[in-house]
Amino acid sequence: MEPYDFSGWATRNNLRCSDGRTILKDAFKGNDGQKVPLVWNHQHNEPFNVLGHALLENRDSGVYAYCIFNGTESGQNAKLIVEHGDVLSLSIYANQLKQQGGNVFHGSIREVSLVLAGANPGAFIDSVLSHGEEASEEEAIIYTGENIALYHADDKKQEDIPNQNTLEGDGTMIGKEEALAHAEVESRKDESEETVADVFNTLTEKQKTVVYAMIGQIAEEVSGEDEEGEGDKNMKHNIFDYDQEDNKDYLSHADTEAIFADVKRYGSLRDSVAAHGIEKIDYLFPDAQNVTNTPQLIQRDMDWVRRVMNDVHKTPFSRIKSIFADLTEDEARAKGYIKGKAKKEEVFSLLKRTTTPQTIYKKQKIDRDDVIDITDFDVVAWIKSEMRTMLDEEIARAILVGDGRLSSSDDKIKEDNVRPIWTDAELYTIKALIELPATATTDQKAKQFIRTAVKARKNYKGSGSPTLYITEDVLTDCLLLEDLNQRVIYDTVDKLATALRVREIIAVPVMENLSRTVDGKTTNLMGIIVNLTDYNIGADKGGAINMFDDFDIDYNALKYLIETRCSGALIKPYSAIVLEATASETTGGEGGEEVSG
To answer: Three-state SS for 165?
Structure first.
């Protein structure tokens, strides 16, 4: 290393600054071995402010700087000032700073400055750092409050140190031998990290007394709990509300120092405290914290609900009337005329039906005390969100397959008000039965499902390209189909959709294991093909989804109600295809829900 004029700490690790931020170890590791300008008081506007340069060395305790003055007049003047002890401190200017919380974990030192320590006592950061959770590409001037030293860095050879007296960090003159001894001590200190005992010994007597009181209070609480048997498991006092006169049973200085001194031997502060006879050291550590802001709901996949509610046709009236003229009968055909024969009138039948609305609701309540006590998140907003989610799922389920409740249930969504596509009249829903032998394999069932779905499309009269709503099991079986060379036939859902002549395929959890009995025959639901543009949801003014809340004074309960009054039905003939198989011939049929057709 080239001869240098003085050295000192450019920055120290684990330095808690006055604004609460801390410089972490290796935050400036990238500057190790770099040479940066040495300037006066962070002045960059004039060349004469550059006094020399500093060679940076990243250590376990921080970044150490070996500084050399240049031959300019300002450089030599600064050298005299340092030698005389008029200026004792270094500071750094750094940018590209990154921090998380209050910890600065990365940065790049651009220059080292001689600063007037008297004007900046202690350690602090004079910066433009953002105080957000994540800050990056910022800059700061960081003061350590450490004094510089002349000629006693650990890499300096004895012959490089002059015989003249040198300055101690506080400005005291020391001799050559004392400087060498001091340099050796500094070198040994830098070779290993500070222990917990080292950190503890940096506290003032007043700060140590507070620590003694904290540990003593915990010992007192634990001791009282052991003597009383079960005891009160909550801490009886705030350990920071300490009055030395009223608390005689705290640990002695010697006991506490022994605990901190043995931390390295036992491996942790917790183990050291336990070894010295104190239990439940967990009182000193922070409580467990939630990893999410709100409780996570255990629920079915809800993506299909959003798709159904977005795709259905909506009208601002709830009483839906559909009228159709059936022109498929022979009587409706045009006829040829023969002379002398009377012309016959066209005959066709009119088909109509009316669907009326029903109120669908969800009700919830919570004690007001709980609302006040839960401070981690907005529990009312969370409850309302859950209510809306479950209401939407119930309506979507009623549209596709019905709510599944018995007809006698008071909670049932009546199928004359919200007509399920699965069980709708054959004028609107085409029933395609998948017939299989009792010994059919899973692959045979999947192939027959695809074949039946494609062939049933010839009777489809719905709008545009429909969507296939399917059970997860049937979808999986179709995707696992292989050809004779054992290559997967449909390696993506999109390829399967193309083969089935549908726009997309959506798995619906509530369709699993559903069965019904029609004309004495039990069938399992496997899929529904429909374009929901042909399904109308109607609600009169005021019947749309609304949220109400009320307060029960007698029971101190907050009550919430979300409801809608609507109707729903297919409005186009032959606009849906239902794919079913006999229950005895498909897996998953046993234990399914039976619906009368």
So the answer is: coil
Burial of 337 (0-12, 13-18, 19+ CB in 10 A): exposed
Token output for 495: 């390829």
* Domain locations in the chain as residue ranges: 6-193, 201-284, 381-596
CA–CA distance, 132 with 502 (Å, rounded to integer): 49
Q: What is the pTM of this model?
A: 0.53
Between the alpha carbon of residue 511 and those of residues 72, 180, 208, 508, the distances in Å are 86, 84, 67, 6
Q: For residue 290, what are the β-bridge partners?
A: none
Encoded tokens for 432: 């395609």
418-470 pLDDT, tens digit per residue, is 999 999 999 899 999 998 887 888 999 999 999 999 999 999 999 999 999 99
Strand, coil or helix: 218: helix
The residue written with tokens 């900046």 in the block is 120
Which residues have C-beta within 8 Å of that of residue 69, sequence separation ≥ 6?
Answer: 5, 38, 51, 52, 75, 76, 78, 79
Q: Residue ranges of the alpha helices (H) in 21-158?
A: 73-83
H/E element, 434: strand 429-434
**Backbone torsions φ then ψ of 422, nearest 5 degrees:** -60, -45
- Token pair 């489809």 is found at 460
